[in-house]
Design goal:
It contains seven helices and no strands. It has 193 residues and is mostly helical. The chain crosses the membrane at residues 12-29, 72-90, 111-133, 139-158, 165-185.
């Protein structure tokens, strides 16, 4: 009976996290200001199985990409989806924090790293794929073109960073309150999925 309750709880958490990511991505206040990375990080903390944790952001991306402007290249799509699995992979590292200092430093690192990796990887891929025909945004295939792409990506990076910090704080705070604090939540999450 207890195992069945845990499985039902895990399914509920999975669906809830996907729903938060989908609603947040479709109803975002601004481009890149979404709960997707925070949801992936929370999934990585909650689910012991990394595959299940990675399925949370991938499911949300699959659902929302049906209604979003399409990625103009399979490489760009793969880089976006790959980068959104990074926070899910950081979750176990954050979950294993044993002191308040580790929780704080790993929490800040886990909140800052996804946007930074996303910025570095996706802009590199956009540059490597080349400009889209008819796009007003043109850049060369040399290092100056790469610099142009990264410079153009800075506002999106800052928005994603702000969104990640906001949503990590909000989601982890809400989850800690709902489960009786970080220590109690950490013990609960150790047994999940």
């Amino acid at each position: 009976m207890r195992r069945q309750l845990q499985i039902n709880s895990d399914h509920l958490v999975f669906v809830l996290l996907v729903a938060i990511a989908v609603v947040g991505r479709l109803g975002r206040l601004d481009w890149n200001f979404t709960p997707l990375a925070a949801v992936a990080l929370l999934a990585g903390c909650y689910f012991r199985n990394r595959f299940v944790a990675a399925l949370v952001p991938l499911t949300a991306l699959a659902i929302t990409d049906l209604t979003q402007p399409s990625h103009y290249s399979g490489w760009v799509l793969a880089s976006v989806w790959g980068c959104m699995m990074v926070p899910a992979m950081l979750g176990p590292w954050l979950r294993k924090a044993s002191s308040k200092l580790q929780v704080a430093t790993r929490g800040v690192t886990s909140a800052l790293l996804p946007a930074t990796i996303f910025f570095l990887v996706t802009n590199l891929v956009v540059w490597a794929v080349g400009p889209v025909a008819g796009s007003p945004f043109q850049f060369g295939s040399d290092l100056a073109g790469l610099a142009t792409v990264y410079a153009a990506g800075i506002p999106f990076y800052l928005k994603m960073l702000a969104g990640d910090l906001f949503y990590v704080t909000t989601l982890f705070g809400a989850f800690a309150i709902a489960t009786g604090g970080f220590r109690a939540w950490n013990e609960t999450a150790q047994g999940a999925g």
